[in-house]
Amino acid sequence: xxxxxxxxxxxxxxxxxxxxxxxxxxxxxxxxxxxxxxxxxxxxxxxxxxxxxxxxxxxxxxxxxxxxxxxxxxxxxxxxxxxxxxxxxxxxxxxxxxxxxxxxxxxxxxxxxxxxxxxxxxxxxxxxxxxxxxxxxxxxxxxxxxxxxxxxxxxxxxxxxxxxxxxxxxxxxxxxxxxxxxxxxxxxxxxxxxxxxxxxxxxxxxxxxxxxxxxxxxxxxxxxxxxxxxxxxxxxxxxxxxxxxxxxxxxxxxxxxxxxxxxxxxxxxxx
Length: 271
Known about the structure:
Blueprint: E1 4-7, H1 13-24, E2 28-33, H2 40-46, E3 50-54, H3 60-74, E4 79-82, E5 88-89, H4 97-125, E6 128-133, H5 146-166, E7 171-178, E8 191-192, H6 200-211, H7 218-230, E9 237-240, H8 243-261, H9 263-268
Parallel strand pairs: 1-2, 1-4, 2-3, 4-6, 5-8, 6-7, 7-9
């Protein structure tokens, strides 16, 4: 049976590929973007199967209205994808309060508002699937993207609690954790803090590391998401791309080793 999707940040990158993958196989999609005009080609290609909506996910009232309109238009919601987000680049010392608050408003609170707006509909119909687009940067951290990490680590914790809360309601929850892909995440949509020269070395090192990464194809990510939402028992977490499985096991091994090395102190701290 075809599914009905609600996808934020649909004008480009992952969001556009998720929408196209769903529409290409005959699903219906409420696709949102800050400017619905950027979605006009979808309407031309897919007709009534797509509902294009203008939405700024930081506007809570607008989010609830958009989710309600999509539910009324299609009659149900099966897959809700919180994809809207962007990258914030800068050392922790360089971050302004405004830049970090804006990052959290979009990457964290935007996902929260969509989730809260969708849950009553999913509960009423007895099921559905909430997909949060996180990142490998939601479970590990690198220099100069601390603000971005803060938003994704918070989303991960929020979502893990959510998954436990709705497990008995027939609602499934998945965190998608992509690695490096050929999207605009680090391009025009990104925000960069005013640099402090002391961190120029870290910037050079990060740039050299990024240059070695094999960028994934967003279209392949779109096709992979279809498999996740079609699974009888979808995962709580899944990497997209190769970097997660290549790098993250060592990150977790290092954490376990550090905790073990300091276990004696931990026991003494019990009192």
